[in-house]
Amino acid sequence: MTLVARGTANREIARELFISEATVKTHLTHLYTKLGAKDRAAAVAIAYERGILG
């Protein structure tokens, strides 16, 4: 979530974490579901509200 909050693209997140871009997308989809978010911006906002990101 920290990389997403910084505005990092999926491709860059994949490189940084040594995983595939498809894996990044899968993880983000699961995060959106768990947070009840519709998109990246909503997920970041919810994460800040819940104290996941500081």
UniProtKB/TrEMBL annotation:
<keyword id="KW-0804">Transcription</keyword>
<feature type="domain" description="HTH luxR-type">
    <location>
        <begin position="1"/>
        <end position="51"/>
    </location>
</feature>
<dbReference type="InterPro" id="IPR036388">
    <property type="entry name" value="WH-like_DNA-bd_sf"/>
</dbReference>
<keyword id="KW-0805">Transcription regulation</keyword>
<protein>
    <submittedName>
        <fullName>Response regulator transcription factor</fullName>
    </submittedName>
</protein>
<keyword id="KW-0238">DNA-binding</keyword>
<dbReference type="InterPro" id="IPR016032">
    <property type="entry name" value="Sig_transdc_resp-reg_C-effctor"/>
</dbReference>
<dbReference type="Pfam" id="PF00196">
    <property type="entry name" value="GerE"/>
</dbReference>
<dbReference type="InterPro" id="IPR000792">
    <property type="entry name" value="Tscrpt_reg_LuxR_C"/>
</dbReference>
<dbReference type="GO" id="GO:0006355">
    <property type="term" value="P:regulation of DNA-templated transcription"/>
</dbReference>
<dbReference type="GO" id="GO:0003677">
    <property type="term" value="F:DNA binding"/>
</dbReference>
